[in-house]
Design a protein that fits this description.
Belongs to the peptidase M50B family. It is a multi-pass membrane protein. InterPro entries: Pept_M50_Zn (IPR004387), Peptidase_M50 (IPR008915). The chain is an alpha+beta fold. About 40% of the residues lie in helices and about 45% in strands.
Length: about 70
């Protein structure tokens, strides 16, 4: 029962971070800002891939999220 609660908490943490960072990602894309990376969770990184010039990373613990962009003037 405790394990199920811990797993549910981890899942909800990831879900909250993904939804939040997805908003940043979509806003950047909508206004033509190049996205360099999307990071969900914290190190150690358990999954890493690149698609269309954007690096994606998934960390072991749902501690934070970030969307790295390249602002051009």
């Amino acid at each position: 029962m405790i394990l199920a609660g811990v797993l549910a908490l981890l899942f909800l943490g990831y879900l909250a971070i993904v939804v939040h960072e997805l908003g940043h990602y979509l806003a950047y894309r909508r206004y033509g800002v190049p996205v360099e990376g999307v990071y969900i969770g914290g190190p150690p990184w358990i999954l890493r891939w690149r698609r269309g010039g954007t690096e994606y990373r998934l960390g072991l613990l749902p501690l934070f999220g970030a969307v790295a962009s390249k602002w051009e003037e």
